[in-house]
Amino acid sequence: MRNPPFRYLQTLQEHFVTAPSWFSSVDGLGTNNARLPATGASLTTNQDGKGTAFQRWFHFKEAFSPSFVSAAIDSLGYRPQHIADPFGGSGTTAITAQLMSIDATTVEVNPFLADVIKAKVSPLSAEKLRHAAADFQASLSGTRSNISRLSHLPPTFIEGPEKPRWIFPLTVARHLSRYLTCIDQIADVDTQRFFKVVLGAVLVECSNIYVNGKGRRYRSAWQENQPTPKKLDELFALRFNTSFEDVLRFEGRPRSRINVINGDSRTALAQVSEPIDLAVFSPPYPNTFDYTDIYNVELWVLGYLGSSADNARLRKETLRSHVQVSRPYDSPAKSSQLLAQTIEALNQQKERLWDSNIPAMVGAYFRDLEIVLEQCQRLLAPSGKVMMVVGDSRYANVRIDVANIIGEIATAMGFGSVAVREVRQMRSSAQQGGRLLLAESIVELRG
Ligand SMILES: C[S@@+](CC[C@H](N)C(=O)[O-])C[C@H]1O[C@@H](n2cnc3c(N)ncnc32)[C@H](O)[C@@H]1O
Asked: Which of 217, 249, 281 represents a domain boundary (last residue)?
């Protein structure tokens, strides 16, 4: 479901080849409409051809496969007016809806990721970007570094005397400050956001660390192989070119209304009043993994976080799928026997859990999903449906059967039809027992 099995571009092309008749009236779709003028070619020469259109703008491990989103839309059996994704991530639902000329609303709590989505769906013109690139290069070479721009960063970020480790060498940090100054000078909001997203997409690659599901790790022999300002320039140019190519390639796409809300879907969905035909989403799994940690470098360097209080605030706005920050843990309003049994089993194993809040966190996780489902229920059109991709977790050998617990809660909430389908088995994290397999499932709900 996640980690697209096909390249996005290929998937979209295949999709459009077999598109239902309502696509054919839309101009600007499909391979035959691609416009790659000679002037644009030089800007695309560096791109390596790997990856999938739009998804290759920023590596997001948990992204939907676009073919899943388009299949979910097709499975409605009618053309939807408006679809929603309350956990937008890298924006696969939003961009797929736009390419299919469908209105969409998406909510994403992480402001950097919300900007990634906005950059993908905003009406950027290749011509404008081409001029902006030339202006940017000129202004970069005439801009002095100003390291005080990065003075808000936590101490581990920039090389300094007495520090045992740092994410960015001082030379790279100085160069980053010049990039940030030049990005600030871009007047057009959409263009500025595009540049910011491109810079965000190369930050970790141009640092001494890598980030995976376990968090931040230093590269092997990082002291001897530190990035340089030249590497930053090369990575930025490469990423600019690949993202630019998608702007150019899909420039004539339909411009349906895509509403990107940067906020907490538990409260932000209340702002939505237009009925939805499909809510398609994958929430964080209850595996104590906080996305705020994974995208921390981008959030700090690009200025979305200015203090540790900002960081704590963002953690609190994320779904209660982790225990990194203390907050109240309440339980779902509707009962689920399976959830009650699971929490009881976790409490019995409490001394084996690495954090004593895990049983309460599991209860609160389902309360959060219930709140999101209440909003979906309020907004769902009579023939619409909810499609959620969810994954199990396991603590001290107690399985959190997420799909079936949601099924019970949704039934108690009055959803008329509840179907659970297992789609794959995932390997659990080391913290969760490593070798054990966990199910990933689709939960389908109708009004
Ligand atoms: C599994 S990812 C979604 C991936 C997405 N389907 C895609 O294709 O890119 C879950 C996302 O939910 C976001 N998230 C977590 N808590 C949230 C909340 N309370 N409101 C909105 N988004 C939230 C995370 O930042 C993360 O990007």
From this structure: 249
Alpha-carbon torsion (307, 285, 270, 114), positive or negative: positive
Q: Is residue 363 part of a domain?
A: yes
Q: Which of 87, 197, 313, 367 to mutate to test the pocket of ligand 1 (most atoms within 8 A of CB)?
A: 87
Residue range of the domain that includes 167: 126-249
Q: In this structure, is the dihedral angle defined by the CA atoms of residues 339, 425, 52 and 79, taken in order, positive or negative?
A: negative
Residue pair 283/371 in contact (Cβ under 8 Å)? The answer is no
Tell which one of 318, 321, 371, 375 to mutate to probe ligand 1, the residue whose CB is within 8 A of the most ligand atoms. 318
In the reported structure, the alpha carbon of residue 89 is separated from the centroid of ligand 1 by a whole-number distance in angstroms of: 4
356 in the same domain as 241:
no
- pLDDT tens, residue by residue, 319-343: 999 998 889 999 999 999 999 999 9
Could you tell me if 130 and 245 lie in one domain?
yes
What is the per-residue pLDDT across 157-208, written as a single tens digit (0 to 9) for each? 999 999 999 999 999 999 999 999 999 999 999 999 999 999 999 999 999 9
Q: How many separate domains does the chain show?
A: 2
- Residue ending a domain, among 228, 249, 270, is 249
Give tens-digit pLDDT for 8-53: 555 555 444 433 332 233 333 332 233 222 323 222 122 333 467 8
